[in-house]
Design brief:
By secondary structure, the chain is mostly helical. A hairpin with an 8-residue loop joins β1 and β2. α6 packs antiparallel against α7. The protein is globular.
Length: 289
């Protein structure tokens, strides 16, 4: 309570003024309050009141990082609703960086419960056609992959690497434990309606002429959907074979050096870390033979 009243304002001022320190300081917002839904909601409202209107770029960057420190069992419904509502509003921001941060929040939730996210898909589809920003387009591919995998959760195949799991640690790829448990079943009608829209978005973004960083994200994070949609293999192989040698070799790497598993593809204070390796861990090699 005292931190919310007397410490949070100054901490948020420092975070807004120091772009390069913002990500590392986010955890401090939850260090001095109780680890309860009500306390977290009060802090989220405090952040919104303080910076949500006047410093939108900082606001959405803070939210996209703070999300990682919610309950390991998955955010409470009230917190889930808060993040999803704020991210949906931010999709209409002028800054492509802000829109990208909002997409990263939405993408995260598609691995926990995809249904509340689906009404936003038409908006995301418009974004990917109107923006050339490499990371926004990369986040679109991650969102599409997560949604398609969720649609097929009931048919989860055995890992082609004998059950070996890939550890995910960055925001887009660090879902809570809730995402590892049983998922709510999406109806066949919903799946039939949204699957063509998701593939239309993928086809628009995932091309041989896309930015190199976007191609790398797509090759790694779309690899798993080959297990469910083998008809996508031709498109995937076309992009893989046309990719620069350094990207292709990184994507095909299955045993990276420690500390190189994730990296910032393009340097900057606003970009996220993405996995750099392991596409063969995800796909069924029979489809690519």
């Amino acid at each position: 309570m005292f931190f919310l009243e007397y410490g949070a304002d100054e901490l948020l001022d420092i975070m807004c003024e120091n772009q390069f320190k913002r990500n590392e300081m986010v955890v401090l917002l939850y260090c001095f309050i109780q680890n309860t839904t009500n306390s977290h909601l009060r802090m989220l409202q405090k952040i919104k009141e303080k910076v949500g209107i006047v410093k939108k770029d900082a606001y959405y960057q803070i939210l996209s990082r703070l999300l990682l420190y919610e309950s390991e069992e998955g955010p409470a419904p009230e917190i889930f609703s808060f993040y999803l509502h704020e991210a949906s509003q931010g999709l209409h921001a002028a800054s492509p960086i802000t829109r990208t941060k909002c997409l990263s929040i939405i993408s995260y939730f598609t691995r926990i419960d995809v249904e509340p996210v689906l009404p936003l898909i038409p908006t995301v589809a418009k974004l990917c056609k109107s923006s050339d920003y490499w990371e926004l387009r990369g986040q679109v591919l991650i969102l599409c992959s997560n949604a398609l995998i969720y649609f097929n959760a009931a048919e989860e195949p055995e890992s082609p690497m004998g059950g070996e799991a890939i550890m995910e640690t960055s925001q887009e790829h660090s879902p809570s434990k809730m995402s590892e448990g049983p998922k709510k079943r999406v109806t066949d009608d919903v799946i039939s309606f949204y699957t063509p829209i998701l593939f239309e978005m993928i086809d628009h973004v995932f091309t041989v002429s896309a930015p190199k960083a976007t191609i790398k994200i797509g090759l790694i994070y779309l690899a798993k959907i080959l297990n469910y949609y083998p008809e996508f293999t031709d498109t995937y192989l076309q992009v893989l074979l046309a990719a620069p040698d350094n990207i292709r070799s990184a994507v095909l790497e299955v045993d990276p050096l420690p500390g190189t598993e994730e990296e910032v593809y393009v340097s900057g204070p606003n970009t996220e870390k993405y996995r750099t390796f392991g596409a063969p861990h995800e796909w069924n090699s029979l489809y690519l033979a």
